[in-house]
Amino acid sequence: MPHDSLPHELMTRSFYEALYPFSLRFNSRRTLSPGKLGVLRHLAEHGRASTTELAAVVQVSQQAISLATKELEHLGFTARIPDDDDRRRTWITLTEAGQQKLTEELDAGVTWLQTAIQERLSNDERAILRAAIPVLQKLGSEAADD
């Protein structure tokens, strides 16, 4: 049966199952949990954030984000700075060490993927993959909004 005639549910399951090995490979090469990596990524993109904002972004409880941010701070990857206008509010920011760690964590999966794409895919398959990137980005950005 051609892939374009797969029922929606079967296509969704097939897509999920195709992504699963990627998740395993990426996560096996990382030293930080996906949640902590999400915190560092959000801080790199937005500069600073409250723990409430971070909890929403990585979809964990306030208690879990509190523990995660304390651990990241202990490791030297984040810092807490007081709000200039509201002394009760504290911002979480990314340190230089945190930016370096984020780069290392992201590069760990990229190296494997780059090699796999180069060695295992034909030129035509690489073109198909390149064309799919905007669609995957759209799915990923919509998933982040959920």
From TrEMBL:
InterPro entries: HTH-type_Bedaq_tolerance, HTH_MarR-typ, WH-like_DNA-bd_sf, WH_DNA-bd_sf. GO terms for molecular function: DNA binding; DNA-binding transcription factor activity. This is DNA-binding MarR family transcriptional regulator. Residues 1-138 form the HTH marR-type domain. Keywords: DNA-binding. It comes from Neomicrococcus aestuarii. SUPFAM superfamilies: Winged helix' DNA-binding domain.
